[in-house]
Specification:
With about 325 residues, the protein is an alpha/beta fold. It is built from eleven helices and eleven strands. It is about 35% helix and about 15% strand.
Length: about 325
């Protein structure tokens, strides 16, 4: 029996998801440097692609896969996949959906708390032996914060649910109203930023959200405001944010994601009041197990003709 062809976008994905060679004919893309040339010669017959969601699957590359029927991404983000082309060609696209939403939400709140309460600064203060001679200035209460959440999907809703018991005020903005949500939706993103002391960015990372946190939004948040970003780096105008941090027109930033990753951390040495993490909000052992198993399950569902889960297109 001929096995269905599965294109693996990286060796790392193969090691993590472990699609059995007894079930799939594995085509390994990273066996060659000229990826598009490889696909031009070998793309025919490939029915499925396994991707991290960060590899390029634009119109030009998808054209090299004429028999493609399913793109299974192990992440929630699909910014590198041309969803319009996929929809037009009848190619199903699945992602991680809400499988790691809880862990991303936990990390977003961790970043917020660490910045608001200056956990890193206090640690440095003790290590540098300054405690015996002076006291640090008091911080701000979490309950005193007005937290605006940008995007109330799986992650945004989980953030609000976790944050509510701490007493902070919560509001949100998204492109569509959600009548059953307990927290108020503010009519515009600029208004939400003006209201907020903390702006947590949890919007879907795709072309529709590129540059969403603009110069105007950053200005509205103001010199006492904090941006927390667990979406995608390109959702925030990074250059504008850096400039605002340097001139004091933005109070702070706590970032798990950046416009171009991985960053060279030393390039940010002169950027004040920023707390950084290497895109790890959803990276827990438990979420990895769930996400990788979910991607493999969808590959098997496609082969068996069963309905796909967490389908984006």
């Amino acid at each position: 029996m001929e096995l269905p062809k599965l294109l693996l976008m990286s060796r790392a994905l193969e090691k993590m998801v472990r699609p059995p060679e007894s079930e799939f004919e594995l085509v390994r893309l990273d066996a060659t440097r000229d990826r598009d040339g490889f696909l031009a010669a070998n793309g025919g017959g490939i029915e499925m692609v396994l991707t991290s969601g960060t590899e390029r699957l634009d119109a030009a590359r998808l054209a090299l896969l004429p028999d493609l029927k399913l793109i299974a991404a192990v992440a929630a983000g699909t910014s590198e996949i041309d969803l319009d082309v996929a929809a037009a060609r009848g190619i199903a696209v699945t992602n991680a959906g809400d499988l790691n939403s809880a862990d991303v939400a936990d990390f977003a709140i961790t970043l917020m708390f660490a910045h608001v309460r200056d956990v890193i600064g206090h640690d440095r203060y003790v290590r540098e032996d300054r405690w015996p001679t002076a006291r640090m200035a008091p911080g701000r209460s979490i309950a005193a914060q007005r937290v605006g959440i940008v995007g109330l999907g799986h992650i945004g809703h989980a953030i609000a649910t976790r944050l509510a018991p701490f007493g902070a005020e919560i509001a949100w903005w998204g492109p569509r109203a959600k009548p059953d949500i307990a927290w108020p939706r503010i009519e515009s993103l600029n208004e939400l930023a003006e209201w907020s002391t903390v702006l947590i960015v949890a919007a879907r990372g795709d072309d529709s959200s590129r540059g969403l946190i603009s110069v105007d939004v950053i200005k509205a948040l103001g010199p006492d405001g904090l941006i927390v970003n667990v979406s995608r780096g390109f959702v925030v105008d990074e250059a504008a944010m850096i400039a605002a941090l340097k001139d004091g027109s933005l109070g702070g930033a706590a970032l798990d994601v950046f416009e171009h990753e991985p960053i060279k951390g030393s390039d940010w040495a002169d950027v004040p009041n920023v707390l950084m993490a290497p895109h790890v909000a959803g990276a827990t052992q438990e979420s990895f197990s769930a996400v990788f198993a979910g991607a493999l399950d969808n590959l098997r569902r496609y082969v068996a003709g069963k309905p796909l889960l967490r389908r984006v297109v």
